[in-house]
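One record is given unchanged without comment:
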Amino acid sequence: MSIAPNPQPPRRYFWPAAMLFLFLLAVTASLVSVWLSGAHVRTYPAQGIIREMDLFQKTITIQHDAIPGFMPAMTMPFVYTDVRELAGITNGDTVAFRITVTAKDGWIDHIQKIAPERETVVVTNAAQLTNGAFRLVRDVDPLSVGDPLPDYGFTNELGQPVRLSDFRGQALAITFIFTRCPYPTFCPRMSQLFHDTLGQLVKDPAAPTNVHWVTVSFDPDHDTPAALKSYAEAHDYDPQRWSFLTGQLIDITALADCFGMKFWHEGAGINHNLRTAVVDARGRLQKVLIGNQWTTQTLEAELVKAAALK
C-alpha cells in the first residue's frame, strides 16, 4: 500500500495584474499633469469676413470680430482642417467658425456661411500707425540677398541703447513680434523657434559662438524694456545670446520694411505677417524666412553658414 502526497492547491499570481494597474495609474497621472499644465485644448466661437483663401497653404484670411477672452478684432490667416467645409464659400462671405488652440498650435473648423450682420470697413494700408491714423515712415526698399543691413538704433530689454552695427561680426537671426499676441502659431511660435534653435546650438560643441538672436517688438507703446524683459525671461533667454528690442516706430518700421515685414493696427488688435531674417557676420542679408513653417534645423543651418562669413 502506498501513500500519495496531498494535492497542493493551484498557485494564483496577482503581481502581473497589480503591476498593470500601477502602470495605468502612472500613465493616467501623467496625462492629467499635462492637461493641468495648460496643454489642454481650448475652443472659441467666432465670426468674420473671408478676405483671402489659399488652398495651397490651407489657410483662410478672415477679418474677424473680437473674440471675448482670447483676442481683439483683427485680420489674420487661419489654418483650416477640412476643405469640404469651404464648398460654396468665397471671398467676401461672412462665416461663423470655431477656433481651436493648444499650447503650440491653432486651427479652425465648423466653418459655415452666414448672413452678414453689419458692414465692416477694411483696413488695407499697412502704413497705419499702431496708435493713430498715420505714422512717419522712411522710404525703404526691401533688401536683396547680399545687401548690407542698415544701422538703426534701438533700446534692449535691459534699457540699454543698441545699434545694429554693435552686432557686427556675429551672425544674426532677426524676427518681429508683439508680446500680447495670443495666437500660438504667430508670435509665440516665432519666439519658441528662436528658443529651440538657440538650445540646439548651445548643445553642439562644434557650433559657432558668434551667433546672436534679435527679437524686435512692433508694439512699442506696450512693449517697454520692462515688458520685454519679463517676456524674455518667460522664454528662458540668455542676454548674451538673445536681445529683445524696442524703439522709435519709424526705425522699427524701416527695419521691418527691409525684410517685407508689415504690421498695422485694426481696432484694438495688431495685424501682421511673419518674417525672419538671417544676416551674416559681415552684416549682409543672407536669407529671409517667410511665414511660420520653417524648422529649427533650417534656421540653425543658415546661422552656421552665416557665422562663417567674416
